[in-house]
Specification:
The protein is of the alpha+beta class. The protein is built from two helices and eleven strands. The chain has one domain (about 25-145): L,D-transpeptidase catalytic domain-like (Beta Barrel). The protein is globular and about 40 Å long.
């Protein structure tokens, strides 16, 4: 019985140690979308890596401020609802809010979307790959006024 308990304690200590090492070494990805500035700032492990011009929701379709965790990605996505291609799509809101590339780059820098956060296709691709690299659970997105 003592031998059995010792093994259980050893297993628990091993698992807890692995969890501590894993969380300590886990890299984090954070994006902050500033609605008033129409900018998206990307931080890796707390250091600013990118600052991009975006386009967020226009009047009647405002992008909702809040905290989000991505939960799905599609490299190539066509929206039947909006009849447009949304390349490098990263879903962040259960209401359909996403971060994606746009071909309408002349509209970047001002609210023009139906609630999504639009980037140049190149920047959307970079963000898409960063989310893939760090994972959904290590990525947080803050949308603020």
């Amino acid at each position: 019985m003592v031998r059995f308990c010792s093994r259980i304690v050893l297993c628990i200590v091993t698992v807890l140690s692995a969890m501590a090492v894993s969380s300590a070494s886990a890299a984090t990805l954070k994006a902050t979308v500033d609605l008033s500035q129409q900018r998206m700032y990307v931080f890796v492990d707390g250091k600013k890596k990118y600052s991009w011009t975006v386009s967020t929701g226009k009047r009647g379709w405002r992008t909702k401020p809040g905290f989000y965790t991505p939960f799905a990605q599609r490299k190539k996505f066509y929206s039947d609802k909006w009849r447009m291609s949304l390349p490098y799509l990263t879903m962040i809101g259960q209401d359909g809010t996403a971060i994606h590339g746009t071909y309408q780059t002349s509209k970047l820098g001002r609210p023009a979307s139906h609630g999504c956060i639009r980037l140049t296709i190149g920047n959307a691709k970079k963000f898409y790959k960063l989310v893939q690299r760090y994972g959904f659970w290590s990525t947080s997105i803050e949308v603020r006024r």
